[in-house]
């Protein structure tokens, strides 16, 4: 499984931080840009962080999921395809444990984006969700055009997806779960095939929720 260099850097920093002590606030990952603004008549430097771009996809129940659908919710995003013969089943199984922990918590959502829209039609995604035991809209298996999903993976989630007919399944993609806060900023990146990292993500989700509850 290929790991994007940015994710290696950010994940390494995240887990080093986690090992030292339980953080009260998670880091904000991705690119950032200093900007000037006026506060009380004075010029101050603020930071603008990378955020997830606007999107609109359809889920397994033919419901439209977009930025507005996720308002006031943190969420975990990943990329998969239902016929994947390698890491996807492991990732789905691991994410299912986190889904069960936060089941019915409306502040927590899960988004799994198919990278094979030709095969993964709405009925196929519905069957996949049913097989996992996923009901309702808390965990959405999303269908969009290949170009829009691949662009979102690259520009929004620092991830990658591409067709590769030389490997089993015909596609390759990042095996990471990305934790996104209510402000559409990436707050964590975790190897979805590693139970320990998935367990850490679950703990970090509690930390992130607490961060908002304190506001």
UniProtKB/TrEMBL annotation:
SUPFAM superfamilies named among the record's database cross-references: Thioredoxin-like
Domain Thioredoxin: 46-210
Annotated positions binding Cu cation: 84, 88, 173
Keyword Repeat: no
Molecular function GO labels: metal ion binding
Pfam families: SCO1-SenC
InterPro entries cross-referenced by the UniProt entry: SCO1/SenC, Thioredoxin-like_sf, Thioredoxin_domain
Top-rank taxon: Bacteria
Disulphide bond pairs: 84-88
Keywords: Copper, Disulfide bond, Metal-binding, Signal
Signal peptide annotation: 1-18
Family in the record: Belongs to the SCO1/2 family.
PANTHER family per record: ELECTRON TRANSPORT PROTIN SCO1/SENC FAMILY MEMBER, LINALOOL DEHYDRATASE_ISOMERASE DOMAIN-CONTAINING PROTEIN
The protein's name in its UniProt record: Electron transporter
Biological source species: Pedobacter psychrophilus
């Amino acid at each position: 499984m290929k790991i994007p260099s940015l994710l290696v850097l950010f994940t390494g920093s995240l887990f080093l931080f986690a090992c030292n002590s339980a953080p009260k606030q998670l880091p904000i990952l991705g690119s950032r840009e200093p900007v000037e603004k006026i506060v009380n008549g004075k010029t101050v430097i603020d930071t603008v962080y990378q955020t997830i771009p606007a999107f609109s996809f359809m889920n397994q129940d033919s419901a439209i999921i977009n930025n507005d659908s996720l308002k006031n919710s943190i969420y975990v995003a990943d990329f998969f395809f239902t016929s994947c013969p390698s890491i996807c089943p492991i990732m789905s199984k691991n994410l299912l444990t986190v889904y069960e922990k936060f089941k019915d918590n409306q502040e927590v959502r899960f988004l799994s984006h198919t990278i094979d829209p030709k095969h993964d039609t709405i009925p196929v995604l519905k069957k996949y969700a049913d097989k996992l035991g996923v009901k309702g809209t808390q965990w959405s298996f999303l269908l969009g055009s290949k170009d829009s999903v691949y662009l979102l993976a690259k520009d929004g989630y620092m991830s990658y997806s591409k067709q590769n007919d030389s490997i089993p399944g015909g596609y390759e993609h990042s095996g990471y779960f990305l934790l996104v806060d209510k402000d559409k900023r990436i707050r964590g990146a975790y190897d979805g095939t590693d139970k320990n990292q998935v367990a850490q993500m679950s703990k970090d989700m509690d930390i992130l929720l607490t961060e908002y509850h304190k506001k």
